[in-house]
Design brief:
The chain is of the alpha/beta class and 207 residues long. It contains nine helices and eight strands. Strands 3-2-1-4-5-8-6-7 form an eight-stranded mixed beta sheet, sandwiched between helices. The longest helix has 11 residues. The termini are far apart.
Length: 207
């Protein structure tokens, strides 16, 4: 990627990048084509690694010089040593995991901190589509029809906060945002409005 492309990442990825300290060790789980990982290596000088399920994604990453291996987060995270990274990132993928709770445990075992982002199923447009149309919602953050979606465990910001509390996970920072980043709220300061108006959320966690 060019430096210009690297600098023009999505707003949610920029929020994730801003949570990561320079010169840290980072594992990007489900790194896709390596957009975030490339940015972190170039601009935050991290020691970055990635794991990606799709062959296409792995090839795209490797072709740009990123250190990425093919693997399935559902089963392969157990092979990583404890605290082998400063940060482990799971971006827009938690809802597609077979067992999100187990994956979350693994992320916080591997990394000293975990950064999780996910679409919020309690956003008002989602509620409206279900209530008025009686159909599963389709939106920018939930772009699939029900019969082709990879998402199997939808959750809300409120659900995720409750899970963190149940698991004894410390939430160091949490924000909700629109898909275009036009409105960003701190979840802890406005939990109701975050859950209702946030299309997606980003959490910085410490076990």
């Amino acid at each position: 990627m060019s430096e210009a492309m690297g600098a023009a990442i999505r707003v949610d990825l920029q929020i994730i990048a801003d949570m990561i300290a320079e010169d840290s060790r980072v594992l990007d789980v489900g790194c896709g084509n390596g957009t975030l990982l490339d940015y972190l290596v170039r601009y935050k000088k991290v020691d970055g690694r990635g794991i990606e399920l799709s062959t296409q994604g792995v090839n795209a990453c490797v072709s740009t010089g990123l250190s990425v291996i093919q693997g399935d987060a559902n089963i392969d995270l157990k092979d990583y040593p404890d605290y082998s990274f400063d940060y482990v990132v799971l971006s827009q993928t938690l809802q597609a995991m077979n067992n999100p709770k187990t994956v979350l445990e693994q992320l916080l075992r591997i990394g000293r901190r975990a950064i999780i982002s996910f679409p919020n199923f309690a956003h008002w447009r989602v509620r409206y589509q279900v209530a008025i149309n009686g159909c599963m919602p389709v939106s920018a953050t939930l772009p699939y029809q029900w019969y082709e979606t990879p998402n199997i465990h939808f959750c809300t910001i409120k659900d995720f906060c409750a899970l963190c509390k149940e698991m004894g996970i410390a939430v160091e920072r949490s924000v909700s945002l629109d898909s275009d980043g036009s409105a960003v709220r701190q979840v802890n300061l406005a939990p109701f409005f975050s859950n209702l108006f946030g299309e997606q959320a980003v959490f910085l966690l410490k076990g």
